[in-house]
UniProtKB/TrEMBL annotation:
CDD domains given in the database record: HNHc
Residue span(s) of domain HNH nuclease: 72-121
Record protein name field: HNH endonuclease
GO terms, molecular function: endonuclease activity
InterPro entries (alphabetical): HNH, HNH_nuc, NA-targeting_endonuclease
Source taxonomy: Bacteria, Bacillati, Actinomycetota, Actinomycetes, Streptosporangiales
Gene3D superfamilies: 1.10.30.50
Length: 169
């Protein structure tokens, strides 16, 4: 699934979104294309031709509310873990509680990780010590205003680099 970097009207990075959503924003004249796809890909319809965007910018400024704690959602957790299983590194499809909820584990950032189906089923409601497993990376709460862009420097388009320099700090 191709991702597009979304910038605020001030060129501040907001998030990444699907190509489909980006094209809709451009066609509805809510956003402008800042950088086209590096390979020169084009989308065609019966009446229009549109260069595939890599970076788009909103025409109107969107205020981002300050939050002391980022809400734990499936999408945010998958983004934090870069869609990789915390146990084996394969593509993750599910969420797993490191300390199972059946054993008193909380539903918090520090106890939830992305997991592939085989690892999630093998672990079931057991503790890591019972299986002899270890986490590849300790789960933590994402920080900063641009937490949705975690991992974007690694898997994004090289044209995103100038906009993501400030978010890496």
């Amino acid at each position: 699934m191709r991702q597009v970097l979304l910038l605020n009207a001030t060129y501040e990075p907001l998030t990444t979104l699907s190509l489909h959503r980006a094209v809709i924003l451009v066609l509805r004249e809510k956003a402008d294309v800042v950088h086209r796809d590096g390979r020169g890909a084009v989308l065609r319809s019966a009446t229009r031709t549109l260069d595939v965007p890599s970076v788009i910018r909103l025409r109107r400024y969107v205020r981002i509310p300050y939050r002391t704690r980022i809400p734990l959602t499936r999408a945010a957790l998958m983004r934090r873990d870069n869609f990789r299983c915390a146990y084996c590194g394969q593509r993750a499809e599910t969420i797993d509680h490191v300390i199972p909820r059946s054993k008193g584990g909380p539903h918090t950032w520090e106890n939830c990780v992305a997991s592939c189906m085989p690892c999630n089923h093998r672990k079931a409601d057991r503790l890591l010590e019972e299986l002899g497993w270890a986490l590849r990376v300790a789960p933590a709460v994402p920080h900063g205003a641009h937490w949705r862009l975690i991992g974007a420097q690694l898997d994004g388009d090289p044209q995103w680099a100038p906009y993501l320099v400030e978010t890496a700090a």
